[in-house]
Amino acid sequence: QVQLVESGGGWAQPGGSLRLSCAVSGFTVSSKVMGWYRQVPGKAREMVAMITTVRSTNYANSVKGRFTISRDDAKNTVDLQMNKLNPQDTAVYYCYMPSGGHWGQGTQVTVSS
Fold first, then answer.
1. Pairing mode, if any, of strands 3-7 and 34-39?
2. CB neighbours of 110 closer than 8 A, spacing ≥ 6?
3. Alpha-carbon span 41 to 33, nearest angstrom
4. How are beta strands 57-59 and 77-82 bridged, if at all?
């Protein structure tokens, strides 16, 4: 059974950092394209970052240079390091596996002073 469980959300001040982690069970992360999406109330869910099986990465323009997606094959996790956060990054962040359309439950990130 495929499960994606996010952790690491919370509150940060503008300019601060947070690290999200997606713990995966039911498959090995190295065998699938994985990604992080985010959603704010009233808006569609949007792609933040993706990582392929060969560790190629793709980022939304709004986070390029600030966020880094990575994969830990030993821990079977997909992580999102978020630096230089700003209030526009406030959202619920979701781990996503396109193959089969699997989503995590989401973790709230709030950036405010």
1. unpaired
2. 10, 11, 12, 90
3. 26
4. unpaired
The amino acid sitting at 61 is: N
Q: How far apart are CA 77 and CA 28, in angstroms?
A: 9
Distance CA 86, CA 113 (A): 10
Q: Which two tokens stand for residue 30?
A: 């190295």
| Ordered per-residue pLDDT tens for the chain, 113 residues | 999 999 999 999 999 999 999 999 999 999 999 999 999 999 999 999 999 999 999 999 999 999 999 999 999 999 999 999 999 999 999 999 999 999 999 999 999 99
Beta-carbon contacts of residue 99 (< 8 Å; ≥ 6 apart): 32, 33
Distance of CA 39 to the CA centre of its chain: 11
Show the CA angle centred on residue 67, arms to residues 99 and 40, nearest 5°: 70
Give the 3-state secondary structure of residue 26. Answer: coil
Q: Say which amino acid occupies 86.
A: N
Whether 14 contacts 34, CB under 8 Å: no
